[in-house]
Write a sequence for this structure.
């Protein structure tokens, strides 16, 4: 059988290992082979590690997305208040002035570019300023401002939830998913495949079905990788 292509992605190899492990556990004859049992045991450990690492990477990605959402909400409020600041109707402009002063204070402090923790702190402080009774009528008199402030509140709450999940994952965070990719490919290509090829040549009946199933799975996975690697012809 051919070896597994090394260009395999982390999520692909995670799925591949899950399939190989299941095939082995469904094959009573293959389980009687001591070498295979040991090798699959190693593969199962690496598979669990890369699965955990992939989930951690996804959680970080979710946190980044949540931060981008709250940044956009803050920018939207700034745009709304900036529009009212140059509004041709004097009454609207006057209502906007104290609100824009609040926004500008945090904008100049770098609320959008600050670290996650600092930005959260500044957002909470800014929302408190906007919740003050002294500017309640100002917000009420300007369409869209209350909604923009509410959007920041929602975005901040969503970020806080994502951050809690991230902190939980970080407590037991290990290596990145990519760091497990090569060891898994090496285990499959340098240990599992050569052994199964040898068992097929030796006509070891206990390993034959498992070897055929592994060969089929490697072929299927390699075809997926090959298709992904083909670039469309430029016109």
């Amino acid at each position: 059988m051919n070896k597994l292509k090394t260009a395999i992605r982390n999520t692909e190899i995670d799925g591949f290992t899950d399939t190989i492990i299941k095939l082995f556990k469904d094959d009573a004859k293959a389980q009687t082979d001591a070498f295979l049992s040991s090798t699959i045991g190693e593969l199962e450990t690496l598979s669990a590690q890369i699965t955990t690492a992939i989930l951690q990477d996804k959680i970080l990605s979710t946190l980044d997305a949540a931060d981008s959402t709250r940044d956009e909400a803050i920018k939207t409020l700034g745009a709304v208040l900036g529009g009212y600041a140059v509004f041709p109707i004097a009454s609207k402009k006057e209502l906007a002035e104290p609100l824009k002063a609040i926004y500008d204070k945090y904008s100049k402090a770098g609320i959008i570019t600050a670290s996650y923790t600092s930005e959260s702190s500044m957002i909470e402080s800014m929302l408190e300023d906007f919740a003050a009774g002294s500017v309640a009528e100002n917000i009420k008199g300007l369409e869209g401002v209350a909604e923009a402030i509410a959007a920041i509140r929602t975005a901040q709450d969503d970020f806080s939830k994502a951050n809690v999940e991230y902190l939980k994952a970080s407590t037991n965070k290990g290596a990145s998913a990519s760091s497990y990719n090569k060891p898994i490919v090496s285990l499959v290509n340098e240990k599992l495949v050569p052994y199964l090829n040898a068992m097929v040549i030796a006509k070891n009946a206990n390993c034959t079905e498992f070897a055929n199933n592994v060969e089929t799975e490697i072929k299927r996975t390699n075809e997926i990788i090959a298709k992904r690697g083909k670039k469309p012809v430029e016109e």
The chain has two domains: 10-55+175-228, 65-171. The first helix runs from residue 10 to 25. The radius of gyration is 28 Å. The CA atoms of residues 20 and 214 lie 7 Å apart.
